[in-house]
Amino acid sequence: MSCFTSPAIMEMLGHYKWRVYEPFRFYLSEDKNDVIEVPVGFVTDLATVPRIFWSLLPPDGEYAKAAIIHDYLYHYPLRNRKESDLIFLDGMKVLG
Question: What does each C-alpha distance from 73 to 9, 54, 57, 67, 77 come to in angstroms?
Fold first, then answer.
């Protein structure tokens, strides 16, 4: 089963941008051989949710770590888009 290593610690830069303040990993398998590591300094817009809906779906809410992984995979194409989207879905399942 997939798992995250630690909380996503970020700082808000303003206007839908956050910077990863501490690195974290997402393991894609139980043996932990397949891993995605997001480094300090990576900038993300998290889940792009219009501000009017932030009270219902805060961009830095429950699925923030999955959104960061997704943005990271799109920015640095370590996987194709379909795989990246499936990893995002897997991350959301892990988170809740």
Answer: 18, 24, 22, 10, 5
Q: What is the pLDDT of residues 15-63, one digit of tens each?
A: 778 899 999 899 997 777 889 999 999 999 886 655 666 666 555 567 8
Q: CA-CA distance, 26 to 78, in Å (whole number)?
A: 14
b/e 44-79 (16+ beta carbons within 10 angstroms → b): bebbebeeeeeeeeebbeebbbbbbbbbbbeeeeee
Q: Look up residue 39 and give its amino acid.
A: P
In the numeric block, which tokens belong to residue 33? 């051989």
The total number of structural domains that make up the chain: 1
* Domain of 72, in residue numbers: 3-95
Q: How does DSSP classify residue 16?
A: T
DSSP state of 79: S
Provide the token pair at 74: 């799109």
